[in-house]
Specification:
This protein folds into two domains: 117 residues, Response regulator (Rossmann fold); 111 residues, LytTr DNA-binding domain (OB fold (Dihydrolipoamide Acetyltransferase, E2P), Beta Barrel). It is 34% helix and 28% strand. The protein is built from seven helices and 15 strands. It has a five-stranded parallel β-sheet, sandwiched between helices. It has a five-stranded antiparallel β-sheet with strand order 10-9-8-12-11. Strands 13-14-15 form a three-stranded antiparallel β-sheet, with no helix packed on it. Helix 1 crosses helix 5 and helix 2 runs parallel beside helix 3.
Length: 241
């Protein structure tokens, strides 16, 4: 997940970073002291998933900077941080996820992360599960397929690695974002890795094929078409078209 913290006060930036680490030990953020430098970074890909933005800053205000960010990446989650509630109405008119009054706490950041995941399923690189004795975290973006096998689920990753968990496939399915599609009783695929959807089967980029559930073929094909249309729409917005 790409996160930014923008505040002209170094102490306040550090406070937000500490709260972020307390809320999610694996999270990291890029820091900026003004809106101009944040916008320069925001023009690069991948887009920011979440931006913590001070409202009162020299030059352009946080509200103005937020509007420019949304023009670039409409799905970026915004969290305003300030010492006053005076601009709360302006903040939420920009569909802000949260409005935090300083000093920023871990509880406030945790709530912001929860809202991001609830309102934008699949945002960022959310950890789906932890596997193995070493606590390896499996990220959504790295998963190709999940397959039921002998009371376990085998997860094939983008790098070809395979991990096994003893969690029911249905339970894992509820944790996955919109990119994932159940194509038969025992297989879920990440649609980012699909090369072709045929009438009776799904072909992945590596050539692997899975047959579609006979009674669900129409619904599966429709879901994949919706995914493609949504992806094209996002790519056009990101390209400014």
């Amino acid at each position: 997940m790409r996160i930014a913290v923008c505040d002209d006060d170094r102490h306040d930036r550090e406070q937000v970073l500490q709260a972020l680490r307390a809320a999610d030990p694996d999270a990291s953020a890029e820091c900026f002291s003004d809106g101009a430098s944040l916008l320069e970074a925001a023009r690069r890909t991948p887009p920011f998933d979440l931006v913590f933005l001070d409202i009162y800053m020299p030059g352009e205000s946080g509200i103005q900077t937020a509007g420019a960010i949304l023009d670039l990446w409409p799905r970026t989650g915004l969290v305003f941080i300030t010492s006053s509630r005076d601009h709360a109405v302006d903040a939420f008119s920009l569909r802000a996820l949260h409005y935090l009054v300083k000093p920023v706490t871990a509880e406030g950041v945790t709530e912001a992360l929860w809202r991001l995941r609830e309102l934008r399923p699949g945002a960022g690189e959310s950890a789906v599960i932890t596997v193995g004795r070493n606590g390896q975290k499996v990220l959504e973006k790295d998963i190709r397929t999940l397959t039921s096998a002998n009371h376990a689920v085998e997860i094939l990753l983008a790098d070809g690695q395979q991990v096994k968990v003893w969690t029911p496939l249905g339970e894992l399915e509820r944790k996955l974002g919109r990119n994932f599609l159940k194509i038969n009783r025992g297989v879920i695929v990440n649609m980012d890795f699909i090369r072709e959807m045929r009438a009776d089967r799904c072909v992945l980029q590596d050539g692997q094929e899975f047959f579609l559930a006979v009674r669900e073929r129409g619904a599966i094909s429709a879901a994949y078409q919706d995914y493609l249309l949504d992806r094209v729409s996002r790519e056009k917005k990101e390209a400014g078209l």
